[in-house]
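GNAT family N-acetyltransferase structure dump, as promised
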Amino acid sequence: MGIEIRQYRSGDATEAARIWNQVVDDGVAFPQEDDLTDTEADGFFSSQSYCAVAEDTETGRVVGLYILHPNNVGRCGHICNASYAVSRDVRGRHIGEKLVLDCLAKAKEKGFRILQFNAVVASNTHALHLYERLGFVRLGTVPGGYRLNDGTYEDIVLFYHTL
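C-alpha cells r here:
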C-alpha cells in the first residue's frame, strides 16, 4: 500500500466522515460524542486551517486524515492543535506517523510556532509512543480528564512540539 498525504477535497467527505466517526465511536481519543453526517463533515473539515487525507495510491481510497487549527486566539494564536484519524482496517501501518509528520510541516508552513495536544488519552499507548518518538515534549497529566464510553474517567496527557 502506497500512501500519499494530500489536501482534503469535498469529494472526500463520505470517507473522511466514516473514519472520523470510527474514532468518535471508539470513545478513546476524540472529545466529540456525536457522529458527523457527510454534509456536516464537509463543513467541518473545510473550515479548518488545513485538513489533509491519507490516500492509498493503489486504490484511491482515503484511509486517514488530520485537521489542523489554532489552539487559541490572539496572543496565543501562534499555537496550533491537530487531530488524527486512521481507518480501523489499516491501523498499525505507520499511516498515523505520516499524517503527523505532514502536519508538523504544514503547521510550520502556515506560520504556527508550536503544535500542542491538549488531551491524549493515557491508554492510547500507540499515540503516546509515536508523539514521544517524533520529539513531542510531555507537559503533564490531567487526572480524570477524559470520560470514556462506559462513564469512567481516564487521565489525559498534554504534549507540545516546537515547529
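Residues 3-117 form a domain with the Aminopeptidase fold (CATH 3.40.630.30).
lmk if u need the other ones
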